[in-house]
Design brief:
The chain is of the alpha/beta class and 408 residues long. It has 16 helices and 13 strands. The protein has two domains: 241 residues, no CATH class; 148 residues, GMP Synthetase, Chain A, domain 3 (2-Layer Sandwich), CATH 3.30.300.210. Helices cover 35% and strands 29% of the residues. The strands form two sheets. Strands 1, 2, 3, 4, 5, 6, 7, 8 and 9 form a nine-stranded mixed sheet that branches. Strand 8 and strand 9 form a beta hairpin. Helix 13 crosses helix 14. The longest helix is centred in the C-terminal third of the chain and has 29 residues. The radius of gyration is 26 Å and the shape is globular.
């Protein structure tokens, strides 16, 4: 029976097996791109300047083997063009290896370019199979993407690794911002029911000094990178940045909260700080008398971080209930203020109200979607919060009680 197998069939089987390696790429033939930066070209309107942060393989291997002390394992390439593919092609003249984008971790957009509009810049990213869309999107506040990508960092030798982890740590510990993947950003750009948002990053100090090794060899570098509030877009253009409090409120509304802190002000300088352990948000919409209403319900589990007061006895159940009510009121006010900023000042539906309205009443959305920019700012947002304090620590009163009594 084996002898009866057609040589043609055998050939086809072999071709199918062997063709799996036709596009194999070897590391020693590639320039691995870790970060992409996009800025407007100041000399040519409508053109872009692209900066790539790439790994220098020899420096990385030397540092891993204990050698190459003090070496910088990354470099940057810059290209200009009318389209993203133009700039990438122009950079092939600067490297001996093929540019490889599959390991890209961050895309940074300069503020000026973001304000002029970046909608068309994402077509190549969305279309090219080699470029993965799971990297983070950041906006360079008060500066350029090139300045961010040429800044050396203290905690990581590869700067983009530090940026990548900064976004995650800031979200996990403070909740002020949340990571935004390229795929989610592109989907929001293409949606009529939600506008996109992205994190922001800023260079504090001088751009030229930030590139020098001397800067990061100081115990307190004068030039460093810092994350800020969320960058808000509308119709593909940056319309503004949120402050930390409004950004925290947006994180809660978007259900991206991990941990955060609630500071409850008391009399004078006294304050009680709560650490949020878990946060859960429900957003619902309904149509009341032909007007949309959005209800945001928040449940948070917290513990007492710190008591800066000689009057608060945290083991007392009435005190805990009182603190919970104050925390709930503060949380409601904060989220309501965030919604007000996004609705009235920026008029950008990054909260996704359009999607909730569509779920509540597809008929209403079809009838009013074309006038959404006029309806959205006037939507009544109702915020309800429930805070449970689960733990108070091992101390009842603050030690400040004894200290203040001694000083009287």
């Amino acid at each position: 029976m084996i002898r009866g197998i057609s040589p043609v069939i055998v050939s086809i089987i072999l071709i199918l097996v062997l063709c799996g390696c036709w596009d194999v790429k070897y590391l020693d033939q590639l320039t691995v791109v870790m970060a992409i930066g996009m800025d407007e070209d100041p000399d040519k309107p409508g053109h872009v300047v692209v900066t790539l942060q790439v790994v220098v393989p020899s420096q990385v291997s030397d540092s891993q083997n204990g050698g190459g002390a003090g070496s910088i394992p990354v470099t940057t390439y810059t290209g200009k063009g009318k389209t993203l593919i133009d700039t990438v092609r122009s950079m092939n003249s600067q490297t001996s290896r093929r540019l490889f984008f599959s390991h890209n971790q961050v895309l940074i957009i300069g503020e000026k370019l973001a304000r002029k509009g970046i909608g068309t810049m994402f077509d190549l990213i969305d279309r090219d199979t080699e470029i993965r869309t799971d990297f983070e999107i950041l906006v360079a506040k008060n500066g350029t993407a090139a300045d961010i990508l040429t800044t050396l960092t203290t905690m990581e030798k590869i700067p983009v690794k530090q940026m990548y982890e900064m976004v995650r740590t800031y979200n996990k510990m403070q909740g002020v911002t949340y990571p935004v993947k390229a795929l989610d950003f592109i989907r929001s750009l293409d949606s009529d029911k939600q506008q996109p948002a992205a994190g922001s990053i800023e260079l504090i100090g001088d751009a030229e000094e930030a590139q020098k090794k001397d800067n990061i060899e100081q115990i307190k570098p004068a030039n460093y990178l810092k994350l800020g509030g969320m960058a808000i877009f509308k119709d593909g253009k940056l319309v503004g940045f949120l402050n930390e409090q409004d950004s925290l409120g947006l994180t809660i509304i978007k259900k991206k909260m991990n941990r955060s802190q609630i500071d409850i002000p008391l009399d004078g300088e006294d304050v009680v700080s709560l650490g949020v352990l878990r946060s859960k948000t429900k957003v619902k919409a309904n149509i009341y008398r032909n007007k949309p209403v959005v209800v945001i319900e928040i449940e948070e589990k917290a513990h007492i971080f710190e008591v800066k007061s000689s009057k608060v006895r945290v083991q007392d159940t009435q005190t805990i209930a009182w603190l919970e009510k104050k925390a709930e009121k503060q949380l409601e006010d904060q989220v309501a203020e965030s919604a007000h900023t996004l609705q009235r000042r920026l008029n950008s539906d990054v909260m996704g109200y359009g999607g909730y309205i569509y779920q509540a009443s597809p008929k209403y959305w079809r009838e009013h979607s074309k006038e959404w920019s006029n309806i959205y700012p006037e939507i009544n947002t109702v915020v309800k919060a429930k805070v449970d304090i689960l733990a108070t620590g091992i101390r009842n009163q603050s030690y400040l009680n004894k200290t203040r009594n001694k000083n009287r």
